[in-house]
Amino acid sequence: MFEKLTEEKKAEILETGIAEFAEKGVDRANINVIAKKAGISVGVLYKYYTDKETFFLACLKRSLDVLNSVLQEQITSSDKILVRAEKIVRAVQKTSREHTNYIRMYNEITSGGNRKYAPLLAEKIESLSATVYTRFIADAAKNGDIRDDIDPRLFAFFFDNVLMMLQFSYSCDYYRERFKVYCGAGLVDDDEFVASQLTKFLESAFTFKGSDVKHREK
Amino acid sequence: MFEKLTEEKKAEILETGIAEFAEKGVDRANINVIAKKAGISVGVLYKYYTDKETFFLACLKRSLDVLNSVLQEQITSSDKILVRAEKIVRAVQKTSREHTNYIRMYNEITSGGNRKYAPLLAEKIESLSATVYTRFIADAAKNGDIRDDIDPRLFAFFFDNVLMMLQFSYSCDYYRERFKVYCGAGLVDDDEFVASQLTKFLESAFTFKGSDVKHREK
Amino acid sequence: MFEKLTEEKKAEILETGIAEFAEKGVDRANINVIAKKAGISVGVLYKYYTDKETFFLACLKRSLDVLNSVLQEQITSSDKILVRAEKIVRAVQKTSREHTNYIRMYNEITSGGNRKYAPLLAEKIESLSATVYTRFIADAAKNGDIRDDIDPRLFAFFFDNVLMMLQFSYSCDYYRERFKVYCGAGLVDDDEFVASQLTKFLESAFTFKGSDVKHREK
Amino acid sequence: MFEKLTEEKKAEILETGIAEFAEKGVDRANINVIAKKAGISVGVLYKYYTDKETFFLACLKRSLDVLNSVLQEQITSSDKILVRAEKIVRAVQKTSREHTNYIRMYNEITSGGNRKYAPLLAEKIESLSATVYTRFIADAAKNGDIRDDIDPRLFAFFFDNVLMMLQFSYSCDYYRERFKVYCGAGLVDDDEFVASQLTKFLESAFTFKGSDVKHREK
DNA sequence: AATGAATGAGAATTCATTCAT
DNA sequence: TATGAATGAATTCTCATTCAT
After folding, report:
1. What gap in Å lies between CA D2 and CA D4, rounded to an integer?
2. Are A135 and A206 in contact (CB under 8 A)?
3. Distances (CA, A) of A207 to A85, A87, A158, A194, B127
4. How many C-beta atoms lie closer than 10 Å to residue C138's C-beta?
5. Which residues of chain D are within 8 Å of residue C119 when distances are taken between CB atoms?
6. Cα of B113 to nearest chain A Cα, Å
7. Are D109 and D117 spatial neighbours (Cβ–Cβ below 8 Å)?
8. Could you read off the pLDDT of D132-184 as tens digits, one per residue?
9. Å from the D6 CA to the F1 C1'
């Protein structure tokens, strides 16, 4: 594979595919157009990728690899969970602005057409963060950093849900418009404020203990 | 329009469309196949809907109308926010099981291909819950039911994000697989446990005040 | 046939067809649209006309009947040929303005699509004027009103050719534009001048004898 | 464009289109059939021509180019007008027999369906002959070769009308049948006689002066 | 008899994929 | 090996015609 293509050319082809898929969606993107834009012949493309699907998956892989490397930085940190949550939120904002198309690729597979790959892809893509977040939350609960009456897997899931929605809300058209409907166009670009509010949201979600409420309500 | 088609036939056609669109996505669904499955000729379909797009939008509308009527019940309730949150969570679970395809239709428009409609649809679809949730949260903050150092629009947004992800996680393939990756197949069907955990998550997210943490951390 | 339809309704339906066929051409005219515009159901239309073709032919017949009745007036005249030629030219101009659509219907059958009917239609439509013009010219030649070294059939043919082109040049889009290209937009509406010039053209075409030229050239 | 298609193949495709369009008319001709007859796939056809319309226009252009090149020979001649008229008449006869389909293509655009292109096409197609004929007639009038009490534009128009009808009468079904109705099947193939008669018709139309008639009539 | 909803064959067009050069 | 022209199956959409009411 790629015997003759330089790494750079490989990357260029994939990036062209990513741009096109992100822009039009898998089905409406045109392989011939992608090849032309990438400055290669369809023949080459089909030499390295069996079919459109395979090529899409390769584009997807590249997108997720980049997104993952960003995640890695966060994961290897040794901050406490709440500090880390804030950092992740800000990292997500940054990534959303810098790698819009990668996130759109990610979003693309969450829609119905790609049903077939769901199990395989979900496993590949989500395992790492699922494991990391779950362990983290479990540890934090043990340490008393956060409440301990929770299921770490579910809270990891909720946590990632919130982040995933944030990503999409910055990068994908529908989600972005929805963001505006909820908060007005102004907030969509006020990263600082959104970050501080979401941090609050997550912080208290993790920290508060139900009993406290009742206590205070007295 | 629809002079001869009974309401039932109308509904059957739309439901067939919904099933097909939810299963295959807009682009891979085939109008001729839908017509055949609905037991009508393509001609009829095109008599009532200008083109595939228009038909898809009609299917989408029907889906959202049903989903909205479920939401309405929650909205008209007079419970306090946290009680209501729990009810909504459980309603979402129920809806996800009963109206999987409607939710898939909703999910369908969040994907890239439908870029064109994003602004219009987001406005139409999200306005109601945005308004209701925001008002609710603002009131609750004023009443001291929840913390008051928050932006109601953003917290309404975060709240709906969590619910939206829950819906998709029950109904849409990729999200469902991801749910399993995070929590294992068992939890996906343990509605009771998931509901109680998510309620906790939301409850504390809304109630806790940051200062308390620091206090306890001492 | 037409047992129930009044003459007026019959006429209205045909006129609607004529308008539509003249506007769009046989193939692009839509039977359902015609029925709707005529205020009847397609069913009625198909009760009286086997198919689109038959209906078109009926519309054509009506058009030609009207055009023919105009011709009749000229034919029954007892003027000398040159006087008559001028009258016909002016009649053609008048008809072209008043019955544009009928002429367009006529033009419609001269185009390739209607190959099938050519022999039948030509016989039906052209016989009368062919006979009349030929006899006329033959008589005029015998009487010395016009040159006598001509074939009356061919000169009748040339004569009608000139008139046919005049009709089309006033009524049919392409011919009209061509008229403008040749003479400028101004002349297209200067009926008086065109008539006098065309009369000259025809008059001399019929009257002059070749030998005279050579004579004068000396 | 046409990188791989040889000139010959290009020509073959266009000729196939011309044959089909000439035979059936634009609307009844079928692109898939044309492709098959031309021994290519529809895909190729659509690679070189955006749509059916564009392809038709290309076929039309080819037809007119050929017809025009024939006209060119006549135009560059330096004969006196009457000599030239006869040559043109004979050229038209020859062209009509050799390039029947090209003339049918020309005829095709004079029918109602192609309304849209009328202005553009008329300008493109008729300008040259309009200019040439008009100038010619004006010069001839000045030189005393023909009568001088005429409008050169109108006489050029009448002249071309006569030629156009001759073309169609040899090439297009309806006109051909009409020709027979007027003159009998025998004359349609007696080119010599028709040419001599038409030459007479044109010659006298151009040469005679109205006053002469009255003179002779005395 | 009249209606117009329903039918479905047919036609234009697209584009993933192949393969001769 | 690379190219990109060629393929043709697949899909959307139209509209003449039918026929149940």
Report:
1. 5
2. no
3. 12, 17, 14, 20, 31
4. 17
5. 177
6. 5
7. yes
8. 999 989 998 888 888 888 999 999 999 999 999 999 999 999 999 999 999 99
9. 25
